[in-house]
Write a structure and sequence with these properties.
Blueprint lengths: L6 H4 L3 H8 L5 H10 L1 E6 L1 H18 L2 E6 L2 H11 L8 E5 L3 H7 L2 E2 L12 H6 L1 E2 L2 E2 L1 E8 L1 E5 H4 L7 H10 L17 H9 L6 E3 L5 E5 L3 H13 L14 H9 L5 E4 L13 E4 L12 E10 L5 H12 L2 H10 L3 E2 L2 H7 L3 H12 L1 E2 L10 H12 L4 H17 L1
Parallel strand pairs: 1-2, 1-3, 13-15
Antiparallel strand pairs: 3-13, 4-13, 5-6, 7-13, 7-14, 8-11, 8-12, 9-10
Length: 408
């Protein structure tokens, strides 16, 4: 049975937690627990120093010890799934939110309760770490894509719609009004998702808690409208979207001034050294609804096999779940903070502010295992439509194939 520890309601102190770890009642047993209780935390090199700082304060205040194990980020998920059931895994690991479905399915993570601390985090960050209505991790960072624009060509104001953006792009005199990465002929549903959601066609439907269901949401009239728009702007239409554009070509066209607008993430900004003035804004709507791109979230998971689960919860909520710790994590690896006041603070940088605004419009990338059945079919259908295939029939075939794969 999963444990729910309401720190805000119960007001657990480190002393109470450690006393519980003693598995007894005498003061001698509690004192012994103070010196013998231990947490093991897995992290990668980028986050190691920040986690160590929080661990040092935790050790000084509780008498417990914390062992920090540095691992390659690419190895964390598979090692966690493999080692937790054997008892060799950590109490806590850093990880990405889109691991969550696999971690829950493997039974290797436990729920956490942030209590009053929940109000300190960006809602989309908590939503990302929620599965079947239960919170499974303490979030700390966000990342998403947004509209990146060349201020010298089109100004800094955010276009509200696709049509407004295209008109400004055409008026700029640039070779193309807009460019977007389609991963060449592979298709890139991730980058195109903001436009798709503006038609009201999500990949999967979310329930009231924000958790994703397995109901495919991109069928019906909304999905067909998006597909029709995609075809109209592909090679058989305006040509503004092309399967000749991959990630590098996209960046080259924007950096050279041949396109004044693109859709990209903060990781690409360094690829634009020749653009003197960059503005970042939310993605404009193509379908009338708010464009909601995918948001990626990183945070800290609690092992379902932790021998000191109360102690681990205390560390997560009251030592990593503080503005000081969240600031240290940001300084170690400067992604948009999930801690709201810190996010607002770093958003004094207008580029960060633009990505934050886009993230606040966004939705978590689905973490359910069924998402693995979507990517290839979804990307291929978009590529085919951009290249001239019949939009409605191609899209509906893809939706049927995705639903069959999810149910199968």
């Amino acid at each position: 049975m999963r444990k729910q520890i309401a720190f805000g309601a119960l007001a657990l102190t480190a002393a109470v937690v450690l006393a519980g770890c003693a598995a007894g009642g005498s003061s001698e047993e509690s004192s012994e627990a103070d010196s013998s209780a231990k947490l093991v935390i897995w992290t990668d090199e980028e986050r190691q120093t920040a986690v160590k700082d929080a661990a040092k304060a935790f050790e000084e205040e509780t008498g417990a010890t914390v062992e920090i194990v540095k691992k390659n980020f690419e190895d964390l998920r598979n090692d966690f799934i493999a080692q937790v059931p054997t008892g060799e895994g950590p109490d806590i690991t850093v990880g990405a939110h889109d691991w969550l479905g696999a971690l829950v399915a493997a039974g290797v993570v436990d729920t956490i309760d942030l209590g009053d601390k929940a109000s300190e985090f960006e809602p989309v960050a908590l939503e990302a770490m929620t599965y079947d209505g239960q919170l499974y991790a303490l979030p700390y960072s966000l990342e998403t894509i947004a509209l990146v624009q060349n201020v010298d060509l089109v100004g800094a104001d955010a276009p509200a719609t696709w049509d407004e953006m295209i008109q400004k792009g055409l008026a700029s005199g640039a070779e193309r009004p807009f460019v977007i990465n389609t991963a060449g002929e592979t298709g890139d549903g991730y980058t195109m998702y903001g436009f798709q959601t503006s038609f009201g066609a999500p990949v999967f439907v979310q329930d009231a808690s924000g958790s994703y269901t397995t109901e495919v949401g991109m069928g019906g009239a909304a999905g067909e409208a998006f597909a029709t728009w995609l075809g109209a702007n592909g090679t058989a239409g305006t040509g503004y979207i092309s399967t000749t554009v991959d990630y590098d070509i996209n960046n080259e066209l924007f950096n050279s001034g041949k396109a004044p607008y693109t859709i990209q993430g903060p990781w690409a900004i360094s690829a634009y050294p020749d653009v003197a003035n960059i503005a970042v804004n939310p993605i404009p709507s193509a379908g009338g609804e708010t464009a909601a791109p995918f948001v990626g979230v990183q945070g800290f998971y609690l092992s379902s096999q932790s021998k000191n689960a109360l102690l681990a919860q205390e560390f997560l909520v009251n030592y990593l779940g503080t503005e000081e710790a969240q600031r240290a994590l940001y300084e170690a690896d400067p992604r948009i903070p999930a801690w709201s006041t810190l996010a607002s603070e770093v958003a004094s940088d207008p580029v960060i502010a633009g990505f934050l605004a886009s993230a606040q419009n966004g939705v978590p990338m689905p973490s359910i295992p069924e998402m693995g059945s979507v990517w290839d079919l979804w990307n291929a259908a978009q590529s085919q439509i951009i290249s001239g295939a019949d939009p409605v029939s191609t899209w509906n075939t893809m939706v049927s194939d995705v639903q069959a794969a999810v149910e199968g």
